[in-house]
UniProtKB/TrEMBL annotation, chain A:
Pfam families membership: Fer4_8
GO molecular function, one term: metal ion binding
Keyword hit for Iron-sulfur: yes
Keyword annotations: 4Fe-4S, Iron, Iron-sulfur, Metal-binding, Methanogenesis, Oxidoreductase
Any one cellular-component term (Gene Ontology): plasma membrane
The protein, known as: CoB--CoM heterodisulfide reductase subunit C
GO biological-process terms attached to the record: methanogenesis
Family: Belongs to the HdrC family.
InterPro entries: 4Fe4S_Fe-S-bd (IPR017896), 4Fe4S_Fe_S_CS (IPR017900), CoB/CoM_hetero-S_Rdtase_csu (IPR017680), HdrC_iron-sulfur_subunit (IPR051460), Helical_ferredxn (IPR009051)
UniProt pathway annotation: Cofactor metabolism; coenzyme M-coenzyme B heterodisulfide reduction; coenzyme B and coenzyme M from coenzyme M-coenzyme B heterodisulfide: step 1/1
Species of origin: Methanococcoides vulcani
Iron-sulfur among keywords: yes
NCBIfam families (UniProt xref): CoB_CoM_SS_C
UniProtKB/TrEMBL annotation, chain B:
Biological processes per GO annotation: methanogenesis
Pfam families in alphabetical order: CCG (PF02754)
InterPro entries assigned to the protein according to its UniProt record, in alphabetical order: CoB/CoM_hetero-S_Rdtase_bsu, Cys_rich_dom, HdrB/HdrD_reductase
The keyword Iron-sulfur is annotated on this UniProt entry: yes
Organism of provenance: Methanococcoides vulcani
Keyword Metal-binding among UniProt keywords: yes
Domain of life: Archaea
Gene3D superfamilies to which the protein is assigned, alphabetical: 1.20.1050.140
Protein's name according to its UniProt entry: CoB--CoM heterodisulfide reductase subunit B
Length: 164, 293
């Protein structure tokens, strides 16, 4: 995975780009990170890399954040750290940097309006519970699904998920 | 009491429908005015889909909230992920006219509009505020003699901006709801820690997710409990199916029953394990089921 277009990640981070420069590298974020206890994610280093290295967008640890928000709640500088991670991830996806499993979730949403659609096993479970085999969501309302599909097209989500 | 529409999301109706059934049984007993939010979609998922494209995330969340506004009802979620997405999106839409305008530019194409007139609720904070532990204690018919590990989950509490706030570090409202059923909420190390599933980690990096889950389970096992109680089907799935995955991968012998709060409350209201779909979990703990025969 490589970054093709854009050298300056910081300037492309719409809301948090300038605020992550406020980081004083105290490390409260990394010390509060439940993922970092078990994985290679180091939130402080990730933010530092975002300031000066476009390769941050292809850093594997960008996707190890469970978005628990401990770092954001505890940051003494009040930096919206998880929001910054969301923005970096969005830039990565625009560059085509995306796990196949995540692309699959996007495709399921495009097709069904659910990221986790119904399956045969759970139709049976629903019936055993006395529920309708399909829930009263877009699964039961095709016109609702059409609305969702129109919105996804209008936002360009179908193009974003398509493999070039 | 606020009238609400029930937002199901994806994981509950399509993977753990017992939680949907339990919620309806409990709200009916508690005389909460709640109807299905028909035609709703994925919230959309806060970890994966919010990571991809914020405009899409806001537009789909906006449609779901607009459907509830059209019914003149607050939107009730029974999942931390749905709550996280919809409450955060509602906050941004209400706080920023420009964001609202952009969302409505998309919603206009399908003949809808979000006004920012209603709130997004989560079943636990809703029951705590609108019903209260006292009334729950009064209506239960089978006080539960259980030691419970309460798992709040991250997105029930965080980000705290825009949420009507309890402490994010040491909250108590969920423990109070659990204890209203007669059960004891047992303290355990790293109680507020993440289950490991969120942020798209479960879907793309399952081994990393399970590392967090295994740690959480070991902390719970260190104090000895009868079950884990959560407020989120994604945590529920990670803590339930995660035990099966860990046992298969590492040869561990995890066997802790995992219940959504509405399933615990349902037991205290006299419903059976089968009516509440507790037996539909991946992890089957027959000793636990026997307590309620």
């Amino acid at each position: 995975m490589s970054v093709r277009n854009e050298p300056n990640v910081l300037s492309r981070m719409e809301k948090t780009g300038s605020t992550i420069l406020k980081c004083m590298h105290c490390g409260v974020c990394s010390g509060s990170c439940p993922s970092g206890r078990h994985t290679s994610l180091n939130v402080r280093k990730l933010l530092r890399k975002a300031c000066n290295d476009p390769a941050v967008l292809s850093d594997d640890s960008l996707w190890m954040c469970t978005t628990c928000y401990n770092c954001q709640e505890r940051c003494p500088r009040g930096i919206d750290i998880v929001d910054a991670i969301f923005e970096m991830r969005a830039l990565a996806v625009q560059e085509g940097i995306i796990y196949p499993e995540h692309r699959k979730v996007g495709e399921l949403l495009l097709e069904h309006g659910h990221a986790v659609p119904i399956n045969e096993e759970n139709r049976t479970k629903r019936e055993a519970l006395g529920l309708d085999p399909l829930p009263p969501t877009v699964h039961s309302f095709p016109e609702g699904l059409e609305e969702v599909k129109k919105l996804l097209t209008s936002c360009g989500f179908d193009e974003l998920m398509s493999e070039e | 009491m606020a009238n609400v529409s029930l937002f199901l999301g994806c994981v509950i109706p399509n993977r753990y429908p017992g939680i949907e059934k339990s919620t309806k049984l409990c709200l009916d007993k508690l005389e909460v005015d709640c109807i299905d939010l028909e035609g709703a979609s994925c919230c959309p998922a806060p970890g994966v889909l919010r990571s991809f494209d914020k405009a899409t995330w806001l537009a789909l969340a906006g449609r779901n909230i607009a459907l509830s506004e059209e019914l003149d009802r607050d939107l009730l979620t029974i999942c931390n992920g749905c709550y996280g997405s919809l409450a955060d999106a509602n906050y941004e839409i209400k706080a920023d006219e420009q964001v609202k305008k952009e969302v409505n530019s998309h919603l206009g194409l399908i003949g809808r509009n979000i006004k920012g007139s209603h709130d997004v609720r989560h079943i636990t904070e809703f029951l705590h505020k609108e019903v209260g532990p006292g009334k729950i204690r009064d209506v239960i018919t089978r006080p539960l003699e259980l030691r419970v590990a309460v798992h709040y989950g991250c997105h029930l509490l965080k980000p705290s901006k825009g949420r009507v706030g309890s402490s994010v570090e040491r909250p108590s409202f969920f423990d109070e709801l659990v204890e209203a059923t007669g059960a004891e909420s047992v303290e355990y190390p790293d109680k507020m820690e993440c289950c490991g599933a969120g942020g798209g980690v479960r879907s793309a990096l399952p081994d990393e997710a399970l590392a967090l889950t295994g740690h959480k389970l070991s902390m719970i096992e260190s104090v000895g409990v009868d079950c884990i109680v959560n407020a989120c089907p994604f945590c529920h799935m990670q803590l339930d199916a995660g035990q099966v995955d860990l046992n298969g991968r590492d040869g561990t012998s995890h066997n802790i029953p995992v219940l959504h709060y509405t399933q615990l409350l349902g037991l205290a209201l006299g419903f059976s394990v089968e009516e509440l779909g507790i037996d539909l979990n991946e992890m089957k703990n027959l000793e636990f089921f026997k307590k309620f025969v």
